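Work Package 3 (structural annotation) set out to generate three-dimensional models for the target panel prioritized at the project kickoff. During this period the team completed the workflow that converts sequence records into discrete structure tokens, so that structures can be stored uniformly alongside our sequence database. As a representative example, we reproduce one entry of 282 residues exactly as it appears in the project archive.
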Amino acid sequence: MEAFMLFLTLFFFLLSAFPLFHCQPDNEYRDCQPSPCGKVGNISYPFWSEESGQPHYCVRPEFKLNCPQLKDKDDYPSIQIGSQTFNVTFIEPENHNMTLIRTDFVYNNCSSQNWSNTSVSTSFNVFRYDELYVKNVTLFYNCPSNYSTEGFEFPCQPPTSYGSNSSNYAFYSEYVVNELQLPDLIENCKRRIQVPVVEPDVPPQLYSQILKQALDDGLIAVKYKVDELCQKCWDSDGRCGWNDTSPFICYCRDGQYPLTCPDSSHSSSMRLFTLLPLPFSF
């Protein structure tokens, strides 16, 4: 009987003490906690920044953000995709959506000879336009002003060397009503580039106004590719990561799991019994 009472005492002691053990987070779980990044709020796998100091197993290299300093927390972070830099204005991890603004592009400046087509393609193929909303628009620059495109032309400021009081016309190709004009634009305009915009969902007579606003805003709807398992890991109170032997790992408070964290009550019971000694014989 004394042995049995001793066993019960030990059992209830471990039972009361176990939550203290369980609350000590695994190192990877602690290291991979979300970190602040300017106006987009907290970022986590696959996004990261040098400022966050997160280890490599918490992030994906191609998702590096340049976060504002804490004193500039009301600024947007930026991301380098290929040779172009974008400000990141929004990240929706649940649906793998983000919105970007190209930082070096002013559509109504005729000094576009140094610009290239806006692109989010990379060798990793992790970013793509959201086809539901984005349409590529070709902009023709330094064009003759004697075309009639029913409001789909706009004056743009030339480089200062051309004279500050002059302007050159530019056109939107996808919205030029008379398609016969396109060969003339291609021949006579000195420069053209492609720019993705959120396609206007308005009657044609309002296209010009809405399109100019979309170009002014510069917003691009982008989807990013990431492990589909990550959301399930987050839903189970885990944190996503990877290592050299596994493309995806769910870091949990009590260790690493391949998909999701176990149910906390089940995990607690199983772990508790591994701590208990074998019952005494009596």
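The CA atoms of residues 157 and 167 lie 5 Å apart.
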